[in-house]
Amino acid sequence: MPLVVVGSVALDSVETPTEKRENVLGGSAVFFSYAASYFTPVRLAGVVGDDWPEEHTKMLWARGIDTSGLQIVPGGKTFRWSGKYLENMNDRETLDIQLNVMDQFDPVLPEEYRRCKFLFLANGSAVLQLKVLDQCPGAQLTVADTMDLWIRNEPDELRELIRRIDGLVLNDSEAKLLTGQDNLVRAGGAVREMGPRFVVIKKGEHGAMFFSEHETYVLPAFPTAEVVDPTGAGDSFAGGMMGYLAEQGNFDPKTLKQAMAYGTLTASFTVEDFSLDRLKNIEREDLDQRMEEYRRMLSF
Ligand code: AMP
Fold it and tell me: Which of 82, 218, 230, 242 would you label with 212, given CA atoms 20 to 30 Å apart?
């Protein structure tokens, strides 16, 4: 089943303790779409300036991603983010954010997008996420991601969004900030009380926690020794998870757990190189093979 995603489309500059890359393909909606495309057809909506290299769009097309909802603003500049990873490769510092065309972005979804059943509101302003949600009244599963910037700057809009969606995906420090709870189990429960049927708290190299009325569990990250650049891991996790749910066409507890595992494995490939460089060199079979290893690792 087709999956719609709206979020940032970016040019990233990333610094790790050993390497540096400037103006590489990034953005929450880009990592998400690419990851999800291994499972289901994806329709991407976002905005870029005319400095956006066309080769990036072609790369998305090569995976069958529909970009008819990607607006190009003449004379505008694409959203830019730059970040630096600390020695542990888990913590990062944002060095600079230039919203550029994102600042004025008015997401008007193409008609085909509006009929979607599966919708993901990738990291971005809650005001914008609400505008998109309003355009997809028939969606069966709506899931959003958020971050500290929006928790601090748009608390009321974010609360309204959380009340209206089915699932929220966020990282551990964001869950603590949103709820004021230091314990993640309590934080997960507190987010659920705000409205969504399920909550996923991502913990970077320590995996991800799941909360619903049926169950609470944690899945470990897939252990990879090759951590080159963690940028986009969270978005790829969400892409793998939502992609699998859309492929299966349901979100019962068993499918959700399997989807959490696919999200984990998709992210484990993303971190093995900069930008989409590792992900673009895998096939669905690589994910399934890693799934076998992951299953073996978890059975005792
Ligand atoms: P992740 O590592 O999964 O948290 O995602 C990193 C991606 O998020 C990068 O490619 C950035 O371009 C994008 N990003 C960073 N900050 C923001 C923001 N405030 N709004 C939307 N996207 C962002």
Answer: 230
Q: Is the CB of 8 under 6 A from ligand 1?
A: yes
Distance CA 155, CA 136 (A): 23
Distance in Å, CA 27 to ligand 1 centroid: 5
Q: What is the DSSP string of 86-125?
A: -TTSS-EEEEEEE-GGGGG------HHHHT-SEEEE-SS-
What does pTM read for this prediction?
0.97
Distance 157 CA to ligand 1 centre (A): 20
| Residue 52, helix vs strand vs coil | coil
The pLDDT tens digits of the residues spanning 98-148 come to: 999 999 999 999 999 999 999 999 999 999 999 999 999 999 999 999 999
- How far apart are alpha carbons 124 and 135 in whole angstroms? 17
If one residue of 5, 24, 81 were mutated to test the ligand 1 pocket, choosing by the most ligand atoms within 8 A of its CB, it would be 81
- Angle subtended by helix axes 253-270 and 284-298, to nearest 10: 110
- Please name the fold of domain 3-298: UDP-N-acetylmuramoyl-L-alanine:D-glutamate ligase (3.40.1190)
Q: Are 220 and 17 in contact (CB under 8 A)?
A: no
The burial of 92, by beta-carbon neighbours within 10 Å (0-12 exposed, 13-18 middle, 19 or more buried), is given as middle
Identity of the amino acid at 127? V
Please give the number of the atom of ligand 1 that sits closest to the Cα of 12: 12
Nearest to 45 by CA among 98, 95, 138, 119: 119
User: Residue 59 and residue 6: Cα distance in Å, rounded?
Assistant: 18
Q: Where are the domains of the chain?
A: 3-298
